[in-house]
Amino acid sequence: MSSSIDKLLKILKLEAELGYENRAVVGGLDKFLPVWESEARTANLNSELIEIVSEKIHTYRDLDTEGRADLLKELRGVLRNAQPALPVQPPTISPRPALERPQPPAYPKAPPKPAQEPEENTPEPADEPPSAGAQVPAQSRRSKPAPTHFAETSQTPGLNAPLTVLNGIGPKNAQILKALELNTLEDLLYYFPRRYDDYSQLKPINHLLYNEEVTVLGMIQSIAVRPVRGGQTSLTEAVLSDGTSFLRLTWFNQPWLTQRLREGIQIVVSGKIDMYLGRLVMNSPDWELVEQEHLHTNRIVPVYGLAARITQRWLRKIMYQTVAFWAARIPEYLPATVRDAAGLVDLATAITQAHFPDSQEALKAARARLAFDEIFFLQLGVLRQKRAWQANSAQVFETDPEWLALHLAALPYALTNAQQRVLSEIQQDLVRGRPMNRLLQGDVGSGKTVVAAMAVATVTRHGAQAALLAPTSILAEQHFRGLSNLLGEAQGEDLSAALQPGEIRLLIGDTPEAEKREIREALANGTIKFIIGTHALLEDPVTFQRLQLVVVDEQHRFGVGQRATMRAKGENPHLLVMTATPIPRSLALTVYGDLDLSVMDEMPVGRMPVDTHVIHPVERERAYHLIENQVSAGHQVFIIYPLIEKGENNDEGKAAVDEHARLQAKVFPKLKLGLLHGRMRADDKDVVMKRFRDREYDILVSTSVVEVGVDIPNATVMLIEGADHFGLAQLHQFRGRVGRGSAQSFCLLIPGTENAVENNRLAVMEETNDGFVLAERDLQQRGPGEFLGTRQSGYSELRMANLMDIFTIEKARQQAQALFERDPELSDPENLALARSFRRFWGIGRGDVS
Fold it and tell me: What is the pTM of this model?
């Protein structure tokens, strides 16, 4: 063992014997450092070891007794092994890409903690917890750790190592950090700040202004603690001077600050300027000693999401020591060709600057790289899914032009140009010899069902079978009636392609068991050509003789597994999924990039737009008057509420159950009102909807359960109470429940409060009936959750990417397509690291091909 190490170990042992009072060396341990560093370098000790030892001893003076004991214990272990201060050695693993949100189940189990000195009295997070020092030497604020890459050694723990390998984190603190889903070093690296406070510009005290957030450097003139609130709490007050003026600083319940902030000490403080009795004051500011690394002040400061018993200051210090040491050790997985073409910084720099940026420009570049990675991996995933799907073979179904012309001529109306275009796209899919995988999106009433009917007829005329999966019984019955008219005997017996009686059937939960058995037998032997149903179609007893087309209506209501189950009932069947929710272009390029997209952006001739108005709550009587007039004219009305019952979710808005009783008793006593909400049993809901459809009710009072698919052509008024509680896409779906007949229809939006009337979001509903315009606005305001449904978990939790950022999306898509064309298997040597990260991001079974 080196004599310099032996000498330092003896000093540390003496310091422990003296009770950690910093008396082993006259003036403190840090006074011994210059001499020791010179001896250590002369002895050719590892320079990183020298820097780590120096940094730790520099922090020793500021710790309490327990913190000092922990630090010396750690330091003695480091010196005995003559290795960097990382005493545990779990195996390394490949890191996951930057976009993946830490989810403990997705990781390999953390290795068991190797034997080491038992840790006792682990400090709990406090406003200023003891720090055992960082793992790397202190850096100046403008000289961040260089993003140098080097191979991991057997002495360095892997990124999946538990957090207990870090100084200052024992089992208790590690358990607390689990509340933030932080379990490993890798989790910390990808736990990015939720926002940043820019304190990088120092300002003299005499230039400070009320309510501004600033950083000030000065000297403590005085500091004292006094009891307040009858002695129940204490207030620490200090006076700071920078030579231009004085600033009063206050902290509640932090009396220990008088031991740290003594008179004559220079500090940097950051916070908001307030006024008290005409004097400037800064309450509970962040502070640091001038000679320390400025993590909390005098810089762009990261602000992290917190949990109970975790303070911003403590977590920020832990994050710094982790990022400073580990960011440079994350292998770069993005090929240099992609980085150069997209103009991106390297991963190490991106992670470092995303946590502790040197400037706004560096932060912008870091976030751009990490956002690109997220979209890039999504693009690679959907390209892989599309390629895998297209690699399958499927039966070819030719469309006879004369047969199609006969069918179209028999329809009660002419197809729009959009319907003809989409029908042509589907016909081309059916003759390619590989499975169709098409998403048909069209606004409410744009005629998607007719196009689907033509696809069904094309397949069944060749003797194959087709199935339509609907999310609710009422919607399935609606499709059964409409498609029976389009494809059944109503077409005329002279059309050989028309489905005959018994060849189109309905299977829902309420179907009698005897009829279910009959339907299952007819599907198995091929007698039934077209089945329409709900989740009942997914059950194991349902088998097909030759299922070649699956149509999924309102696709976002079905999960990945349910669509896969339906496809598995055929042999590579063609797939057509439909949605009435217009999908913004940015989402269509990312989340649905594996699907061929058809857009129905044209309404049938003669359909009148719904007259939409935002009205004040005090004008509710006018709405009631319109309702009475419409009912008198023989029409029906929807009234929607955001809540089922009063007080739900601590919301004071109007509720369907209470309002139904009030409306029936006091407002519309002569009319018949039905009630529908989400807590009703499925069969009870269907009974209510059938009665409304059959005109047994004049008014249906409901919650959002009527959002999708219900077709009541006689309904002409949609009154939405608490309209500001709903998203634009949802409001548009509500509006689509009316205006399905020939009469003029109305949609009335009543916000929950008078103040919400001037809601810009609601005003858009008055301006346009275009669902795509509304969808783009909704994505901007509410995020992608409204559009994703159950297609893919995680899209709404992207850390850096903005799914409205078309520029980044198109750049990432271009690079992903170019890379995929060159190396679809990601097997080239330069892409091997990317392939590993790609597999880890998507995982087994993650994603969807429908």
Answer: 0.62
